Amino acid sequence: MTRDRRARRHGHEFLKTLAVAGILLLCVGPSWSALGARQRSGQVPAGQSAAGRIAGRVTGVADGRPIAGAVLRLLAPAIRVQKSARTDADGRFEFTELPAGSYQLSVQAEAYLPGAFGASSPGEPAKPIVLGDGAAFTEADFGLWHPSAVEGTVTDEFGDPVPGIEILISRLDFAAGKRRLFPVGGRSADHATDDQGHFRVPGLPPGEYYLTAVSGVFTERNETAGFAPTYYPSAIEAADAQPVRLALGQDATGLAFRLQPSTMASIRGRVLDAAGQPVGLATLMLFPADRGTVASLMLARGVTQADGSFELRNVPAGAFALQAFGRPEGGGNLGKSPFGAASIDVNGRDLRGVEVAVRPGAVIRGRIVFEDGTPPSIDPTRVQVSGLPVEFESNPIGGGPPNRTMNPDWTFEVENQFGLRVIRANIAAPGWSLKRITRDGTDITDAPTDFRSGDATGVEVVFTKAASSLSGRVQRDDGSPAENYTVVVFAADPRRWTFPSRYVAIGRPNQEGTYEVAGLPPANYLAIAVPRVEGTTWQDPAVLDQWRPLASGVTLGAGPATLDLRLVGR
Amino acid sequence: MTLHAHLGNAVRAAVAAMTVVSLTAQVPRPGEATVEPTGTARLACRVSVSQDDHQVPVRRAAVTLRTSTGGLFETFTDTNGQFEFPNLPAGDHTVSVEKAGFIVAGPDFERSVGIRVGEGEQRTVEIRMVRAAALEGRVSTPAGEPARGVVVSATLIGYGPTGPRPEAIRSATTDDLGRYRIHTLPAGEFFLAAAPDALEAAANSGRAADPMTGFARTYFPGTTFVDQARRVSIGRGESQTGLDIVMATVPLASMNGRVLDAAGAPPERFAVRVQPVGGVSGDVRGFSAVGSNTFTYPGVPPGAYWLLASVVGADGRFEFAAQPFDVAAPGRQPEVVVTTAPVPAIAGVVVTDDPGAQLPRGLRVVAVETLYELPFRADLGERPDEGTVGRDGVFRLGGLFGPRLFRVERLPPGWALASVERDGADISDRAVAFGPGEPATPVRLVLTRRTATLAGLVTDAAGTPIASARVVVFPEDAARRHQASRFIATTRSLVTGEYVIEGVLPGRYLVATARGLATGAWEDPATLTRLATSAVPVVVAAGDRLALSLTVKP
Questions:
Q1: Which residues of chain B from 187 to 226 reach within 8 Å of chain A, CB to CB?
Q2: ipTM tops 0.90
Q3: Is the pLDDT of residue A265 over 90?
Q4: CA–CA separation, A195 vs B101, rounded Å?
Q5: Is the peptide bond before B221 cis (omega within 30 degrees of 0)?
Q6: N or C, which end of chain A is more exposed by having fewer CB within 10 Å?
Q7: pTM
Q8: Regarding predicted confidence, which is higher, A190 or A4?
């Protein structure tokens, strides 16, 4: 190893440190801050005790042995309770002094998949535990599974093993109006192929995965070049990728990649601000342009020098989107950065003089209106207005929430909006839901706003208490009650499925086996109960279209409705 | 659950992933930007490996060329194993070729070759690689479970500032099944050392089921003492499997403390490092709490450590403290209060002993530290321009703590450091102990061109030229054999087997060539005593140019 490549590797170690720090920072979010330190218990309503109790045991499914030191997390957002506990040597745990409420319980243990109470398999959402005043629930038992792994080899066009290839693990999901391969978990650099071209990526929950063998600019180290990103087993297009299915507790081994060679090029250029001045330390992201039926969220990253210049080396041939983010105020949140984008075609020849201009985004300005004129007794900051990207051509691919101001008089301002977005609003008050969003009197509830043509002012967000709700039970074919399922409720009119649709929602059973879906706009709907759904694929119009002939119809207006369903599929 | 909550979750998950992206993307990566070569020479190479008695190309290997003036150019071999640098400056360049599973053929562990190109020269060079060796096995806990995320290193005895120490040549991290494979190794004898990934250990320390027990650094097949470790011997291109290691556990201690500056106040900016004395650096990591002057090291195995603290004041003033810290028993250690003290910054001048000669440009003075094994100069508040010698010969050095020898880097060929003086005393080969209260007396370094040159050919016993052989020139006087000695010079033979060592001070020397010498071993007195038995004695005077051919023993 030469000293320079070694220095770069030290740099990589440093980045790894930062990444760990970043993950730590993220863990200190609202959910994990309770760990070991603060335990927050909400207000106990008058006339109620806080004498409830939830207890159980955590064991390994494979050998039935107790798991010591597992961390349990108990959450009841509505009554603002969050607690954590650790299992003892016998795998047992207990939460006491709980007020009545609806709780979600989950567990994490080293070398095991995380568990959520009531989930039939890892990765499924939890079923709530509804605890009455002073009640005890002592059957909160968990059986945890070991994660699965994918393992195989990578060879080149000559059949020789290729070292230094990183394996990107993705899931097919539906986002911003398109089917996309989303990379999941892990630092791919840890899974680079060795001298025999061998890779193994552990720690995966069961499911369907797409594997991409990446090199060059798409890897942290950028030390192997000459290949296009290749989808398993040897595809150039994401749409031709073959999925790898992982069953619970089982590994997929012997996966053989044959890499597709590609010419390499480097891209050099500058990032400039609105005044034409160079932007140092700007973040760059390069990813394949949206094309074909499946998009791939494979990212290459770079950063500009003090003089605004950048170089991305070892870029394979293809069409790419290049996005630049100026320095965000106060830290690393790209959602607060000035932003700019360019389309780049690469064909093996070096590109020089590429310029990307970054500018601050537009503003959403408006007010919140409550239908009956009386606001709920919550702090206005419990309402969240945001712009939801409907594609990633005009929209930045990354970033946290932008600066938002929510005033006591229910007026608001949301900064740094780019591209085509649908304005959405959430309210954290039981019973309330979104009715309508207008801009200067025009209904834009389901229509995207183009922020490239400036600010969106005169926005009015209307919340209603007269919202619909749909609830019911689900039975299996033999008439027995189903305990684990997902109910998907979607508008009968396919024109209302366009992303992001308010007319498509899912519900999960509580521990009584009952589901409830609240806040859908009044319309004619179809509903289906399926054993499970992968990620957000239930938002995909193609998936809804497949379900349509098997679904039951229901009309929702203001107020509650019930619909019992029969489980479809195994 | 409502639709909106769901959308919100999906967006939040995406946002969380992106936030990590942005955090990691804010730092420029060192060495990322390379310059395109400009010059009149052209170097074309073909890289091959022997297979069944003929040479086959080594494809898509990473090539790094370093020029003698510090330039850095990178490329890859093509599918025929070829690469070229069309517009290269003339000079002695070092070319390294890297591809996992292959190493550049040669007697040394360095994986590069020296190539000389002249002005306007069109040079074609054949670079031979050999198949590399690998070590494989499984690491388990004492309970027989796979030990995941353990870093296993193929280790040799190397040489640090304070003498012999274990040095990892290459390493690999165990997977979820506890398996490891260390590849791209030269043939030789290695120790196998297994230790938890320090970074992971630090990150997870708060979450461990038993935070007071940890894995000790364990040597194959299962001992914590390097002198009881079994050596593993591998031949060229060989894979050894079944090298299983059972980790030893040790009770851990937790260290915590506070840093105070010389005024007794909590400093605004400080850095703390806990480092095993004579051990592998970076073994112990901890946290400095943001916005306070406290630090915590949660998982420290018993042993002897240096506790090093540095403070940088708002005015750039630098303070330092180093104190030995023995962890004799596990458990929570008493709180340590480290008080830093201002350390001297000194000025100095570099002159030549020849009034007619102009002082070379681009020199840098370094103060070689010989006790603490300080791993990062930046920790010591060193600025990038530290030690840079101006046109008038003046330089400035800050952050001086501990014993230091003064040396000059980036000397042009033929130049040498003749002497170092301070306050009228000759400190050429004597370390000055810097600490609080040490006066900022300036240092004067004298350079000379009155030196000798040794040159020749390195061959094997059959007379075949040997590339990349290590050649060491060292003093006959054993008292002058030490770290950063002005009387030790070394190089590696070029791809043609030729070697040149310039800037040798007049005196009596021994010249030796050897296979498999670890980096830094040529400053180790014991190694030099061993080399002396096969060395050629020479006496050199200023202006001499000695031709001396050397034979590498098998």
A1: 199, 203, 206-210
A2: no
A3: yes
A4: 5
A5: yes
A6: C
A7: 0.77
A8: A190
